[in-house]
Design a protein that fits this description.
The protein has helices spanning 12-22, 37-47, 63-73, 88-97, 109-120, 128-149, 153-163, 168-175, 179-193, 198-207, and strands at 3-8, 28-34, 51-54, 78-83, 101-104, 125-126. The protein has 215 residues and is an alpha/beta fold. The protein has two domains: 3-134, Response regulator (Rossmann fold, 3-Layer(aba) Sandwich), CATH 3.40.50; 150-214, Arc Repressor Mutant, subunit A, CATH 1.10.10.10. Strands 2-1-3-4-5-6 form a six-stranded parallel beta sheet, with helices on both faces. Strand 4, helix 4 and strand 5 form a beta-alpha-beta unit. Helix 7 packs across helix 9 and helix 7 crosses helix 10. The longest helix is centred in the middle third of the chain and has 22 residues, at 128-149. The mean pLDDT is 89.
């Protein structure tokens, strides 16, 4: 039985090229095309494809939102993001939305075919550059967790107030300690996090969501 594929991209030339190549594959059938996320959802309902090749940046509804909605309603449908963007934010958004694969448009045709077959068999299909992005992200998160755990409860309190933009004097008043004590804590925090100033420290803590209620 052939693998039914739906193509989603707002560039006609991309759709034409993908369709031409995939139709040369004996075990793949292109069942439909869509130019945006909303149309993709409608075409999934109509054609019930096995795999959707999903572009990211499109009018009306982007590929991230379309992927999320498709996976919510049709969890059996496999989605492979096919885009020019390898930035970590796009990669993570695509994976979190439920995509089983993430490929870049410079991928070799044979590798794309392999990716389609992998997702149908239940495997993940990630471009090598994307895999590197995910490894980097995980490593960064692990390092962040280690650094946060190295702080004492009082240092975490001080750091929290730093992320609120408070001065040492204000922090001292809030925590009922001397300003000198706060300065000592700040110095230790900078050393443990290997950062140079308060601004870097605040940005680092917020970026890694150490104090979630601030986000």
């Amino acid at each position: 039985m052939k693998i039914k594929v739906l193509l989603v991209d707002d560039h006609a030339i991309v759709l034409k090229g993908l369709k031409f190549f995939l139709q040369t594959q004996r075990d793949i059938e292109v069942v439909g095309e869509a130019r945006n996320g909303k149309e993709a959802i409608a075409k999934v309902e109509k054609y019930q494809p096995d795999v959707v090749l999903m572009d990211l940046i499109m009018p009306e509804m982007d590929g991230i939102e379309a992927t999320r909605k498709i996976k919510e309603t049709y969890p059996q449908v496999k989605v492979i993001v096919l885009t020019s963007f390898s930035d970590q934010e796009y990669v993570l958004s695509g994976i979190k939305a439920g995509a089983e694969g993430y490929q870049l448009k410079d991928v070799e045709p044979d590798i794309l075919v392999e990716a389609i077959k992998k997702t149908v068999s239940g495997e993940k299909a990630l471009h090598s550059q994307v895999t590197h992005q995910l490894v980097t992200h995980v490593t960064s998160q692990e390092e962040s967790a280690v650094k946060f755990s190295s702080l004492t409860p009082r240092e975490k309190d001080v750091l929290y107030h730093i992320t609120l933009g408070k001065s040492n004097k204000e922090i001292a008043a809030d925590l009922n300690v001397t300003e000198k004590t706060v300065k000592t804590h700040v110095t230790r925090i900078l050393a443990k996090l290997e950062l140079h100033d308060r601004t870097q420290t605040a940005v680092y803590a917020i970026k890694h969501k150490w104090f979630g209620h601030q986000q």
